[in-house]
């Protein structure tokens, strides 16, 4: 392979050593960046001639101090995205990466100044450095290509340069830098601490007087200093001879001592190796614990060695799909690397996990296969759900025909499939509410946690984990904590799960993303408010996803499900139904036999849904 590719591979290996991440340590093993074998270089994008073009390692809990030239050996790099890690060091020198278009280093622990060398990146389109500890002034960015810029939540100082490009961004791009001033920030430059440094004209006279005084004082100090240095020099000269003699003796002693010290250091290093070995052995002794009668078909090492694909980062940490080929029964498994948990002892963790697998035996709950616990690593291993999650099924378009890029569509998601999802989730939630104690049995019911297995059976994931999450994180990220009761009196209960179920039903019926469970970066709608508004403003026919609303024979069932959804979403928890009641009503909705019966006239205003829905929403929503 060419010298350049070797250089790039070596630079990746340096990064690997810096991050020292157990997953990357086992995954980054390729000879060099092959476009065809991305799994050997997780997060690395390669060009067709095998150069590194992108480094995309977001939210992986990476640590380590990145050196200034860590990226200098990737001349083809167009993207660096390391956001939401804990990487420290200065903002790296990227002046030799002329092709860079996107830099996202936000949410790390970077410090020091933003390097002016970034000004030489003429193709730069986005620069995101927010949520770090950067200091100093903002360089005068003026690349016309720059469309996204964010340096908020740092400690940057001084006036924002008046270049047209920097002035075109909103104040949000600069917020929370107390010593940054001038437009577009909301902090005027003549105020507060800033004014002391960048003095106004009226202060200039005073300051020049002060400068004069200081100059005289400095002159006196200089003279005194000079005399002192001369005296010291004479003293030094006198003692030099004595010192020379002492040095000679010392060198002799040192030589003898050095031999002894070397031997000591060697012994110390050997001792350290033994400790590390012992620790490694201790970890190895801890094995994957298989639960629920699952046969131990693979070991921890197999998981680490298996080709892995990142599925995403959730509230508990990163989730990977690992392909274990050659094992009977299980082909792919999902590994959740638990991070950001409440501090837990081995016993507490095991108790919680036992609670999960003791109750996993329900056809609509995703079974836990195994778990692993050590001080540094906590893993949960689940069965891989072949047909993905409900969020993607509802919202994501896929290529209709392989190879035809323009023809994109959704996998058909007919009324009967949606009804069976509503039923499966209701049954799973009822089971959790009846069988698992605790205040919030699920706590995070949303469409990315509803999975479809190889038989299209709906399985709910992430149950039994809510009590592992610390309250500040739970209140930011878990769906139950978005409920009206948590907003008003900071309390959640099983009824918060019922509310989440109502939101999920509305997502299922409308095919709109719910604001309460939208994945990061995706905007959603407050669906309950939106449905009520749709009725009030008489565009009721638009509530339902056209894909199902044209199945006219199912309209009664759809209205019934909408009624249940709104009842579950009632602002007052006491007025919401129990899940047992919900299951009863959802089970009673008739499955329409013929799915082909469609209203081909395409006139939505003629739909019975638009006549019945207002009465239902305005009137009694009880089940
Ligand atoms: N067993 C599984 N089979 C298939 N896909 C899964 C499985 N478990 C999780 N996923 C998918 O992997 C992705 C990441 O999951 P993860 O649970 O880490 O985060 P999340 O569901 O997006 O958020 P949260 O942690 O808040 O629930 C999601 O898209 C999820 O649907």
From TrEMBL:
Q: In which residues is ATP bound?
A: 336
**Gene Ontology CC annotation, any one:** membrane
User: SUPFAM superfamilies this protein is in?
Assistant: L domain-like (SSF52058), Protein kinase-like (PK-like) (SSF56112)
Keyword list, A-Z: ATP-binding, Coiled coil, Leucine-rich repeat, Membrane, Nucleotide-binding, Repeat, Signal, Transmembrane, Transmembrane helix
Q: Which InterPro entries match?
A: Kinase-like_dom_sf (IPR011009), Leu-rich_rpt (IPR001611), LRR_dom_sf (IPR032675), PRK1-6/SRF4-like (IPR046959), Prot_kinase_dom (IPR000719), Protein_kinase_ATP_BS (IPR017441), Ser-Thr/Tyr_kinase_cat_dom (IPR001245)
* Compositional bias (Basic and acidic residues): 198-207
What GO MF terms are annotated?
ATP binding; protein kinase activity
Composition bias (Acidic residues) maps to 594-606
Annotated localization: Membrane
Q: Where is the region Disordered? A: 177-207, 593-623
Q: Does Transmembrane helix count among this protein's keywords?
A: yes
- Where primarily located? membrane
Q: Which residues form the Protein kinase domain?
A: 305-589
The domain of life is Eukaryota
| Spans traversing the lipid bilayer | 214-237
Coiled-coil blocks: 237-286
The name under which this protein is listed is Protein kinase domain-containing protein
Species, as recorded = Acer yangbiense
């Amino acid at each position: 392979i060419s010298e350049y590719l070797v250089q790039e591979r070596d630079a990746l290996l340096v990064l690997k050593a810096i991050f020292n991440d157990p997953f990357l340590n086992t995954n980054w093993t390729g000879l060099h960046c092959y476009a065809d074998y991305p799994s050997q270089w997780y997060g690395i994008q390669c060009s067709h001639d095998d150069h590194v073009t992108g480094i995309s390692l977001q939210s992986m809990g990476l640590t380590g101090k990145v050196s200034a030239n860590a990226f200098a050996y990737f001349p083809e790099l167009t993207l660096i995205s390391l956001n939401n890690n804990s990487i420290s060091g200065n903002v790296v020198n990227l002046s030799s990466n002329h092709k860079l278009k996107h830099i996202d280093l936000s949410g790390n622990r970077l410090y020091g100044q933003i390097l002016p060398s970034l000004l030489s990146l003429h193709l730069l389109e986005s620069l995101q450095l927010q949520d770090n500890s950067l200091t100093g002034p903002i360089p005068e960015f003026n690349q016309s290509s720059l469309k996204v810029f964010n340096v908020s939540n740092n400690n940057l100082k001084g006036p924002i340069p008046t270049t047209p490009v920097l002035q075109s961004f909103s104040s949000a791009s600069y917020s929370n830098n107390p010593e940054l001033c001038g437009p577009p920030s909301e902090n005027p430059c003549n105020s507060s601490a800033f004014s002391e440094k960048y003095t106004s004209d009226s202060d200039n006279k005073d300051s020049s007087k002060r400068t004069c005084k200081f100059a005289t004082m400095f002159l006196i100090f200089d003279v005194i200093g000079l005399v002192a240095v001369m005296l010291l020099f004479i003293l030094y000269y006198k003692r030099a001879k004595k010192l020379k003699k002492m040095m000679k003796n010392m060198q002799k002693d040192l030589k003898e001592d050095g031999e002894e010290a070397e031997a000591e250091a060697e012994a110390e290093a050997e001792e350290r190796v033994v400790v590390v070995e012992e620790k490694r052995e201790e970890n190895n002794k801890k094995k994957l614990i298989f639960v629920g009668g699952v046969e131990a078909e693979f070991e921890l090492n197999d998981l680490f060695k298996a080709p892995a694909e990142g599925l995403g980062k959730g509230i508990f940490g990163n989730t990977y799909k690992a392909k274990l080929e050659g094992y009977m029964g299980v082909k792919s498994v999902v590994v959740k690397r638990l991070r950001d948990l409440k501090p837990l002892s081995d016993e507490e963790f095991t108790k919680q996990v036992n609670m999960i697998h003791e109750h996993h035996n329900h056809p609509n709950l995703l079974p836990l296969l195994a778990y692993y616990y050590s001080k540094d690593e906590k893993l949960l291993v689940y069965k891989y759900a072949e047909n993905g999650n409900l969020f993607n099924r509802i919202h994501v378009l896929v290529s209709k025909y392989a190879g035809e890029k323009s023809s994109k569509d959704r996998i058909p998601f007919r009324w009967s499939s949606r009804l069976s999802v509503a039923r499966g989730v209701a049954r799973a939630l009822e089971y959790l509410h009846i069988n698992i104690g605790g205040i919030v049995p699920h706590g995070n019911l949303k469409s990315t946690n509803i999975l479809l297995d190889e038989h299209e059976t709906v399985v709910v994931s992430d149950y039994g984990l809510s009590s592992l999450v610390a309250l500040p994180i739970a209140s930011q990220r878990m769906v139950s904590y978005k409920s009206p009761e948590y907003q008003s009196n900071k309390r959640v209960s099983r009824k918060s799960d019922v509310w989440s179920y109502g939101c999920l039903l509305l997502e299922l019926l409308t095919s709109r993303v719910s604001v309460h469970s939208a994945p990061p970066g995706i905007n959603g709608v407050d669906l309950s408010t939106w449905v009520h508004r749709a009725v009030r403003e008489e565009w009721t026919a638009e509530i339902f996803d056209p894909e199902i609303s044209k199945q006219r024979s199912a309209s009664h069932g759809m209205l019934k499900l909408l009624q249940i959804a709104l009842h579950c979403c009632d602002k007052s928890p006491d007025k919401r139904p129990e899940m047992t009641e919900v299951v009863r009503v959802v089970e009673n909705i008739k499955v329409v036999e013929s799915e082909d019966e469609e209203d081909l006239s395409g006139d939505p205003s003629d739909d019975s849904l638009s006549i019945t829905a207002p009465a239902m929403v305005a009137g009694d929503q009880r089940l």
